[in-house]
Amino acid sequence: MTFDPHADNYSPPSPADASRLLGEIAPVSRRSQRLARDVTFARPLLAWGLAWMAGALLYQFVPGPGGAIGGMAACAAAAATTWLVRPREVRHDNERRFTLVWWVLFASSPLLLVVAAPQNGRLAAVFLGCLWALGMLLYGIGVRDLPVAALGLGILAVAAATRLAAPRAAMLAVGLAGGLVMAALGAWRMRWRR
Fold first, then answer.
1. Quick count: other Cβ atoms within 10 Å of Cβ 14?
2. CA distance 145 to 63
3. H or E segment at 98?
């Protein structure tokens, strides 16, 4: 249905036609938002998933400070990837706010570690993983990204279950399970890049 407002026989659309046209726009808007989100976060999710898995394996099996340093290096590489690969053409008004929220969460994490005072480094890593999983859950709810929200909730559930059932394996379980699902979600979202 096309209208030419300059034609002599122009008449505005009826309320029913206008309602139908607006109804056809909403699904296109939702699909374009999902596409922009998938393109924007595919590679960072993949990078963070790989960093979580590498960090958990290094921290669990490399003795001394080498494991912690290796895990932090993997996370630093994921943070750099997040910053460097994000498409500049995809910008929304709320993107800056959510980026600020993530940076505040990361920057305040050491302060929360001081307050929580975990007994050892492994518990500190599980605590940080849970904190960031909570961030994923809240972010997913905030932007209606249900897979990321489910990922955050799943990581929290795995952390709680393994902390109760096998406390010494909690960090490895959180890092591998969360990292695997995060990397898989990132890889699945990269399908738009092909």
1. 9
2. 38
3. helix 95-116
Q: Can you give the pLDDT at residue 23?
A: 73
pLDDT of residue 150: 96
Range of the domain at 54: 15-193
Residue 95's identity, in one-letter code, is E
Closest Cα to residue 102, out of 64, 66, 70, 134?
134
Would 55 be classed as within a structural domain?
yes
Which residue numbers in the chain have pLDDT < 50?
A: 194
Q: Which residue has the tokens 């494991």?
A: 67
Overall number of domains in the chain: 1
Q: Please state, as a whole number, how many other Cβ atoms lie within 10 Å of the Cβ of residue 69.
A: 13
Helix (H) or strand (E) holding 94: none
pLDDT in tens, 1-50: 555 666 666 677 788 877 777 777 666 666 666 666 666 778 888 999 99
The answer to whether position 3 is within a domain reads: no
Tell me whether residue 172 is in a domain: yes
Q: What per-residue confidence (pLDDT) applies to 29?
A: 62
